């Protein structure tokens, strides 16, 4: 399976970072393409996007100030197939992308994504006290996978904190 393209540009409002592409994303070439993934619904319900987008529109969100990448580029059926070596390499590559593109906020879509990136065990939802790259804000949100057992309202509530953060940054 081939890797999918990052959607990056300088000074994004938010760079969304996932674990790695799903097999469905690799097939379609678009982020969060698995029909069981609730990413696009969450963004809309949290007020981050003005409407519910679909995965095949992922690149158009660059115009809204939102970009996409993953800590590991290799598509897999599940994140537990990612190797330790891939995480180590991906951690450094991600850090270089953040330094280069300087997004205002880096939103980690899944606590485990941030744990791998920051090499930390104890992580809370929302803004992290110390960003890994100075000048950015690290924000940890729940995974949008349909496998996550949190209630949808709770997930959306955490993403609404990201919406409030973006509004505050505009002031």
From TrEMBL:
Molecular function as annotated in GO: pyrimidine-specific mismatch base pair DNA N-glycosylase activity; uracil DNA N-glycosylase activity
A Gene Ontology biological process term: base-excision repair, AP site formation
Annotated keywords: DNA damage, DNA repair, Hydrolase
Statement: the UniProt record of this protein carries the keyword NAD: no
Source superkingdom: Bacteria
Presence of the UniProt keyword DNA repair in the record: yes
InterPro entries from the UniProt entry: MUG/TDG, Uracil-DNA_glycosylase-like, Uracil-DNA_glycosylase-like_sf
All residue ranges annotated as the Uracil-DNA glycosylase-like domain in the record: 8-152
Name recorded for this polypeptide: G/U mismatch-specific DNA glycosylase
Organism of origin: Peribacillus asahii
